[in-house]
Amino acid sequence: MRKKIVAGNWKMNNDLEAGKKLAQEVLDKATGNEEAQIVLGTPFIHLTALAETVVGKKGIEVAAQNCSDKASGAYTGETSAEMIKSTGVNYVILGHSERREYFNETNAELAAKLDLALANGLTPIFCCGEPLEIREADTQYDYVKQQLTESLFHLSDEDFAKIVIAYEPIWAIGTGKTATSAQAQEMHAELRSHLASKFGQAAADACPILYGGSCKPSNAKEIFEGADVDGGLIGGASLNADDFLAIVNSF
Ligand code: PEP
Questions:
Q1: What is the DSSP string of 94-155?
Q2: 109 closest CA partner among 122, 96, 121, 120
Q3: Which of 234, 189, 201 lies closest to 216 in space, CA to CA?
Q4: Contact criterion met (CB below 8 Å) for 5 and 39
Q5: Ligand 1: does its nearest atom lie under 6 Å from the Cβ of 236?
Q6: In a 3-state reduction of DSSP, which class is residue 6?
Q7: Residue 216 CA: which ligand 1 atom is closest?
Q8: 1 has pLDDT over 90
Q9: What tens digit of pLDDT does each residue of 158-198 get?
Q10: How confident is the model over 84-120, as pLDDT tens digits?
Q11: Residue 127 bridge partners (DSSP)
Q12: Is 168 among the residues known to form the active site?
């Protein structure tokens, strides 16, 4: 059976104390028998503290929200995959649409980030998804498949087996508009068959594909019912421990 994962994306929210408090609340309220692997995607400032207090407890993991596409050196303000791994966390979110849009991240740069994340033992949660105009033009499958082809298809079979994918239609992120469960399932199935064309059916069948976009306790169960939907990447609702845990247990 494929691994179920629900990852929070705190984005640029929570100062150090607020982040520690929220993570502690998730840890305290989690039973350790959740229906999905919990991952907290936090700003860099929280990684070291949460690696000590939360990672590995009740199965909880922590993710950075980005890493550099360079290994090291004179890149002021950047944080490398190796540095992230040295904090003790095991995951990194890559290619979130906000990074693609506001920081001009390209599929080629994301391919380099993926390589560095994998080389440093981090599990990448690779985000993909189409903007509204692409959905309206009904070309979303080609658009998202191209993101996967250009960032992932150079991976070895061994590396591909380590990654998690998050499909996040941009028009559904932070807008309160969710894809219908049918739209999510259709896209996930398309992506899985695209992955199978490159890496084989068994490898594609083993790859967790998460849905993201205005997922909340009231709609998570329906969305997660899709046969190819293996969990969620959760923005706004991950800032509240009860809402986040309710989503984690929505399968
Ligand atoms: C996200 O940022 O990945 C996201 C899905 O946000 P929200 O849940 O707030 O739409």
A1: E--HHHHHHS---HHHHHHHHHHHHHTT-EEEEEE---HHHHHTT-HHHHHHHHHHHHHTTS
A2: 96
A3: 234
A4: yes
A5: yes
A6: strand
A7: 8
A8: no
A9: 999 999 999 999 999 988 888 899 999 999 999 999 999 99
A10: 999 999 999 999 999 999 999 999 999 999 999 999 9
A11: 166
A12: yes
Cα(71) to centroid of ligand 1, in Å?
28
Amino acid at 90: N
Averaged over 227-231, what is the pLDDT? 98
Q: Quick one: which atom of ligand 1 is closest to the CA of 96?
A: 3
146, two tokens:
């191209």
- The single residue listed with the structure tokens 């490398």 is 80
Tokens of 144: 């998202």
Q: Which atom of ligand 1 is nearest to the CA of 238?
A: 8
User: Does residue 174's CB lie within 6 angstroms of at least one atom of ligand 1?
Assistant: yes
Across the range 123-150, mean pLDDT stands at 97
Asked if 25 is an active-site residue, the reply is no
